[in-house]
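Here we describe the complex-level prediction in full. Unlike the single-chain runs in Section 2.1, the three entities below were treated as one system.
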Amino acid sequence: MAHNTLTPTFFEHDVREVARSLIGKTLVSRHNRQRVSGMIVETEAYLPKGDSASHAYRGPNRKNASMFGPAGRAYVYSIHARHCFNVVTEDPGVPCAVLVRAVEPLDGITWMQQRRQTEKRERLSTGPGRLCEAFAIDRQLDGVKLTSRRRVWIEHNPAITICNEMIRSTQRIGVTSAGRLKLRFVLQGNGFVSGPRSLG
DNA sequence: CTACCGATTGACT
DNA sequence: GTCAATCGGTAGA
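The structure predicted for the assembly as a whole is:
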Protein backbone atom coordinates (compact mmCIF):
# COMPACT_ATOMS: atom_id res chain seq x y z
CA MET A 1 0.00 0.00 0.00
CA ALA A 2 1.39 3.35 -1.04
CA HIS A 3 -0.36 5.15 1.79
CA ASN A 4 -0.01 4.39 5.48
CA THR A 5 -3.68 4.84 6.23
CA LEU A 6 -4.55 3.65 9.72
CA THR A 7 -6.57 0.41 9.71
CA PRO A 8 -9.52 -0.60 11.92
CA THR A 9 -7.15 -2.60 14.12
CA PHE A 10 -5.40 0.61 15.16
CA PHE A 11 -8.63 1.94 16.66
CA GLU A 12 -9.78 -1.26 18.37
CA HIS A 13 -7.50 -0.85 21.38
CA ASP A 14 -8.07 0.88 24.74
CA VAL A 15 -9.29 4.43 24.11
CA ARG A 16 -6.47 5.96 26.22
CA GLU A 17 -3.91 4.00 24.26
CA VAL A 18 -5.40 5.17 20.96
CA ALA A 19 -5.56 8.78 22.16
CA ARG A 20 -1.87 8.65 22.99
CA SER A 21 -0.80 6.91 19.80
CA LEU A 22 -2.75 9.34 17.61
CA ILE A 23 -0.29 12.09 18.58
CA GLY A 24 2.00 12.66 15.60
CA LYS A 25 -0.34 11.00 13.08
CA THR A 26 -1.56 12.94 10.06
CA LEU A 27 -5.22 13.93 9.75
CA VAL A 28 -6.28 14.34 6.12
CA SER A 29 -9.47 15.78 4.63
CA ARG A 30 -10.53 16.01 1.02
CA HIS A 31 -13.51 18.20 0.16
CA ASN A 32 -14.37 19.85 -3.15
CA ARG A 33 -11.05 18.62 -4.56
CA GLN A 34 -9.33 20.50 -1.74
CA ARG A 35 -6.91 18.37 0.25
CA VAL A 36 -5.80 19.60 3.65
CA SER A 37 -3.71 17.82 6.25
CA GLY A 38 -2.15 18.38 9.65
CA MET A 39 -0.20 16.59 12.36
CA ILE A 40 -2.28 15.69 15.40
CA VAL A 41 -0.77 17.40 18.46
CA GLU A 42 -3.58 17.23 21.03
CA THR A 43 -6.21 14.57 21.87
CA GLU A 44 -8.57 13.66 24.68
CA ALA A 45 -9.96 10.25 25.65
CA TYR A 46 -13.56 9.75 26.72
CA LEU A 47 -13.98 6.49 28.61
CA PRO A 48 -16.72 3.87 28.16
CA LYS A 49 -17.37 3.49 31.89
CA GLY A 50 -17.62 5.89 34.81
CA ASP A 51 -16.79 8.98 32.76
CA SER A 52 -19.47 11.55 33.51
CA ALA A 53 -17.99 13.91 30.91
CA SER A 54 -18.68 11.45 28.10
CA HIS A 55 -21.69 12.07 25.89
CA ALA A 56 -22.48 8.38 26.25
CA TYR A 57 -22.54 8.50 30.06
CA ARG A 58 -26.34 8.44 30.21
CA GLY A 59 -26.76 5.81 27.55
CA PRO A 60 -27.40 5.86 23.80
CA ASN A 61 -29.46 8.47 22.00
CA ARG A 62 -29.71 9.76 18.46
CA LYS A 63 -26.83 12.18 18.84
CA ASN A 64 -24.23 9.85 20.33
CA ALA A 65 -25.08 6.69 18.37
CA SER A 66 -21.70 6.63 16.62
CA MET A 67 -19.90 6.21 19.93
CA PHE A 68 -21.60 2.83 20.29
CA GLY A 69 -20.62 1.74 16.79
CA PRO A 70 -17.48 0.00 15.51
CA ALA A 71 -14.00 1.46 15.92
CA GLY A 72 -12.42 3.56 13.20
CA ARG A 73 -15.44 5.71 12.41
CA ALA A 74 -16.01 9.40 13.04
CA TYR A 75 -18.15 10.78 15.81
CA VAL A 76 -18.97 14.41 15.03
CA TYR A 77 -21.18 16.53 17.26
CA SER A 78 -21.98 20.19 17.54
CA ILE A 79 -21.61 22.31 20.63
CA HIS A 80 -21.62 26.07 21.19
CA ALA A 81 -22.36 26.54 17.49
CA ARG A 82 -19.19 24.62 16.55
CA HIS A 83 -18.31 21.08 15.54
CA CYS A 84 -15.99 18.63 17.24
CA PHE A 85 -14.30 15.66 15.60
CA ASN A 86 -13.84 12.35 17.40
CA VAL A 87 -12.52 8.93 16.47
CA VAL A 88 -14.51 5.95 17.78
CA THR A 89 -12.43 3.25 19.48
CA GLU A 90 -12.71 -0.21 21.06
CA ASP A 91 -15.56 -2.65 20.39
CA PRO A 92 -19.13 -2.13 19.14
CA GLY A 93 -21.43 -1.51 22.09
CA VAL A 94 -18.55 -0.04 24.12
CA PRO A 95 -19.07 3.72 23.87
CA CYS A 96 -15.79 5.59 23.81
CA ALA A 97 -13.98 8.01 21.53
CA VAL A 98 -10.92 10.20 21.11
CA LEU A 99 -11.55 13.91 20.63
CA VAL A 100 -8.99 15.47 18.28
CA ARG A 101 -8.44 18.96 19.72
CA ALA A 102 -5.62 20.37 17.61
CA VAL A 103 -3.40 19.70 14.62
CA GLU A 104 -0.36 21.48 13.22
CA PRO A 105 -1.21 22.56 9.65
CA LEU A 106 0.78 20.79 6.93
CA ASP A 107 -0.84 20.76 3.48
CA GLY A 108 -3.62 22.91 2.03
CA ILE A 109 -2.95 25.85 4.30
CA THR A 110 -4.51 28.30 1.84
CA TRP A 111 -7.77 26.30 1.90
CA MET A 112 -7.70 26.40 5.68
CA GLN A 113 -7.10 30.14 5.66
CA GLN A 114 -10.03 30.58 3.29
CA ARG A 115 -12.38 28.50 5.43
CA ARG A 116 -11.21 30.00 8.71
CA GLN A 117 -11.11 33.59 7.42
CA THR A 118 -7.71 34.20 8.96
CA GLU A 119 -4.08 34.10 7.90
CA LYS A 120 -2.70 33.24 11.31
CA ARG A 121 -1.34 29.71 11.39
CA GLU A 122 -2.11 29.18 15.07
CA ARG A 123 -5.74 30.12 14.53
CA LEU A 124 -6.32 27.64 11.71
CA SER A 125 -6.60 24.33 13.51
CA THR A 126 -5.86 24.90 17.22
CA GLY A 127 -9.00 23.93 19.13
CA PRO A 128 -11.66 21.36 18.18
CA GLY A 129 -14.08 23.84 16.58
CA ARG A 130 -11.42 25.61 14.53
CA LEU A 131 -9.97 22.31 13.38
CA CYS A 132 -13.35 21.17 12.09
CA GLU A 133 -13.87 24.40 10.19
CA ALA A 134 -10.40 24.19 8.63
CA PHE A 135 -10.95 20.56 7.62
CA ALA A 136 -14.57 21.07 6.47
CA ILE A 137 -15.85 18.58 9.02
CA ASP A 138 -19.49 18.80 10.06
CA ARG A 139 -22.24 16.52 11.30
CA GLN A 140 -22.71 15.06 7.84
CA LEU A 141 -19.49 13.17 8.51
CA ASP A 142 -20.83 11.62 11.70
CA GLY A 143 -20.40 7.86 11.43
CA VAL A 144 -18.22 7.76 8.31
CA LYS A 145 -15.44 5.19 8.09
CA LEU A 146 -12.04 6.80 8.59
CA THR A 147 -10.31 3.76 7.19
CA SER A 148 -11.57 4.02 3.62
CA ARG A 149 -9.88 7.27 2.54
CA ARG A 150 -13.12 8.75 1.24
CA ARG A 151 -13.52 12.15 2.85
CA VAL A 152 -11.51 12.18 6.08
CA TRP A 153 -8.85 9.73 7.19
CA ILE A 154 -5.68 9.39 9.28
CA GLU A 155 -2.22 8.37 8.07
CA HIS A 156 0.97 7.30 9.75
CA ASN A 157 4.00 9.28 8.62
CA PRO A 158 7.07 6.99 8.91
CA ALA A 159 9.31 10.07 9.00
CA ILE A 160 7.83 11.07 12.35
CA THR A 161 8.68 9.12 15.47
CA ILE A 162 6.96 10.05 18.71
CA CYS A 163 8.26 8.58 21.92
CA ASN A 164 6.47 8.65 25.26
CA GLU A 165 8.73 11.35 26.67
CA MET A 166 7.46 13.77 24.03
CA ILE A 167 3.86 13.37 25.14
CA ARG A 168 2.44 15.09 28.18
CA SER A 169 -0.86 14.07 29.79
CA THR A 170 -3.07 16.58 31.56
CA GLN A 171 -6.64 17.14 32.66
CA ARG A 172 -9.14 17.56 29.89
CA ILE A 173 -10.13 21.06 28.76
CA GLY A 174 -13.57 22.53 29.36
CA VAL A 175 -14.81 19.41 31.12
CA THR A 176 -16.93 20.46 34.05
CA SER A 177 -18.51 17.22 35.20
CA ALA A 178 -15.70 14.68 35.42
CA GLY A 179 -12.90 14.50 37.93
CA ARG A 180 -9.25 15.19 37.50
CA LEU A 181 -8.39 12.26 35.28
CA LYS A 182 -5.42 12.91 33.02
CA LEU A 183 -6.99 12.01 29.74
CA ARG A 184 -5.67 14.82 27.56
CA PHE A 185 -2.52 14.15 25.57
CA VAL A 186 -0.38 16.87 24.01
CA LEU A 187 2.82 16.94 22.02
CA GLN A 188 5.11 18.74 24.43
CA GLY A 189 6.40 22.10 23.25
CA ASN A 190 4.30 22.18 20.11
CA GLY A 191 2.96 25.67 19.36
CA PHE A 192 -0.35 24.47 17.98
CA VAL A 193 -1.64 22.91 21.19
CA SER A 194 -4.81 24.61 22.48
CA GLY A 195 -5.61 25.95 25.92
CA PRO A 196 -3.31 26.13 28.92
CA ARG A 197 0.03 24.52 28.09
CA SER A 198 0.80 23.14 31.52
CA LEU A 199 -2.24 21.88 33.37
CA GLY A 200 -1.52 19.18 35.94
C1' DC B 1 -43.88 24.39 19.80
C1' DT B 2 -40.45 26.72 23.50
C1' DA B 3 -36.64 26.20 27.00
C1' DC B 4 -32.31 25.02 28.09
C1' DC B 5 -27.63 23.33 27.69
C1' DG B 6 -22.62 22.75 26.42
C1' DA B 7 -16.04 18.19 25.17
C1' DT B 8 -16.04 26.62 22.42
C1' DT B 9 -14.44 30.75 20.59
C1' DG B 10 -13.22 35.51 19.99
C1' DA B 11 -13.38 39.95 21.91
C1' DC B 12 -12.29 42.53 25.60
C1' DT B 13 -10.16 44.47 30.56
C1' DG C 1 -6.84 36.92 32.85
C1' DT C 2 -12.57 37.43 32.19
C1' DC C 3 -17.00 37.05 29.76
C1' DA C 4 -20.91 36.56 26.75
C1' DA C 5 -22.57 35.17 22.03
C1' DT C 6 -23.19 31.23 19.78
C1' DC C 7 -27.07 27.39 17.68
C1' DG C 8 -28.09 22.41 16.95
C1' DG C 9 -29.84 18.80 19.62
C1' DT C 10 -32.62 17.23 23.07
C1' DA C 11 -36.27 17.23 26.49
C1' DG C 12 -40.52 18.57 27.99
C1' DA C 13 -45.26 20.81 27.59
